[in-house]
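User: Sequence in, structure out. Go.
Assistant: Echoing your sequence, followed by the structure tokens.
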Amino acid sequence: MDYMIGVDIGTTSVKTVLFDNVGKVQGYSNNLYPLYQDVPDMAEEDPDEIFSAIVDGLTTVLRKANLSAGELKGVSFSAAMHSLILLDENHKPMTRAITWADNRAVKYADQLRENGVGKQIYEKTGTPIHPMTPFTKLIWLRNDHQDLFNKARWFVGIKEYVIYKLFGVLKEDYSIANATGMFNIFKMDWDDQALELAGVTRDQLPELVDTTDTVTGMNEDYARVIGIDPNTPFVMGASDGPLANLGVNAIDPGVVAVTIGTSGAVRVVTDKPKIDPKGRVFCYYLAPNKWVVGGPVNNGGIVFRWVRDQLFAPEKITAEQMKIDSYDLLTEIASKIPAGSDGLIFHPFLGGERAPIWDANARGSFFGLTRNHTRAHMVRAALEGIVYNLYTVLIALEEVVGKPVSIQATGGFARSALWRQMLADIFEQDVTIPESVEGTALGAAVLGMYSLGLIDDLSEVKQFVGVTNVHHPNPDTFEAYRALVPIYIRLSRQLQTEYKAIADFQRSQDAKKAKSDNEL
């Protein structure tokens, strides 16, 4: 039997998944690493800790599988978008990996949006202007950390660093390059205007290659540790969002993938690049004639975790003592409250927000609180608020690519029947839950199979993806949600005028606290 490994380099862990030639999982490893947040708005990772996690994951999976020679056909990568690492002339990291969640470039992102230059860049790159992007991060480093910036020889992301460590070549696939905010999606090359604004040149960036490009000739020391033939082909792969669509078989026109993990996203595949005149959605490359249009949100399951930890700490302890899942207990509590939470609305912007408002200063809020509302209302309102926000992304997406034909939903939230039904009710669409658990890793593996000629077309992914549940919208909820969603949207617009003011106040308080702590 033939086997393929999909490696999914995420924000907090790397998942290494061994698939057989019918897409079944035959080996799995999940290796964690920390997110460093030493100062306000920072979100960094150690690139060498990530590299070690990848080596450990491959080693673990291959040792357990005990494959015969030649059975492993290849390894293919998925990686989180928007990471940035500065390397010296010897390819040694001068910084940690600055992740998509890092907001320290917010001032420069705001300036680009205000002066109109950001719109020009977006219309060529398909990447909205936001502090998440390496483009804005480079402008921030160039202005605020000139010595560090000027000493750097190379500017790369985490996948490029891993490929270099393993193979000694510096390559970047179109999909990851696309997400830097400096890649012209119509010319399939770095964008001159973006490079000039960022202060970098082509010879400081990796060689651009297609997502189907392969590398071989692994460093023999690493090959020996992993237990892999050094000539095993490694496929460059793509970024995690586009591969998540592929991994749940959402690559046909009109098939929308909705993901809620720690963060979330709404995405659909088109056959050519498409730009939103209002700049609300991204357009990222997947493979030849496959472009993913959609919007990411910062606030998915991480909001549910905040509700659990800050509002339901006693219940969390009780669940642990009873050896039941604390999230299951909270969804059971939320299920007792009617749709619409009796008029309580929650804006889930606990970590700024990307689509559709693209405002790193956005902050969360409850609206409509009365004496009749309880903590149970608050947990249901939080879950509804996450889905309301995803629905606003879908509205923007519909203006660009048209109405969805069907919706495939994945992510950690898919474990919750209440949350799945909520999605169907608010979207007023059937929601299908694919059987594939590790959709992004499967997407990487399928792209690898296609690259290596093991399958003839990416559409063959449908053979690997089953269906576990289909949720139909409940008309009994339509009246409440149809009334509340417009209020949610109007409030988002009105509150945006004050988000910067409250965010600046919070940052000043954080700075004072940090100064006081240092003095102590």
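User: And one key feature?
Assistant: The chain has 17 helices and 23 strands.
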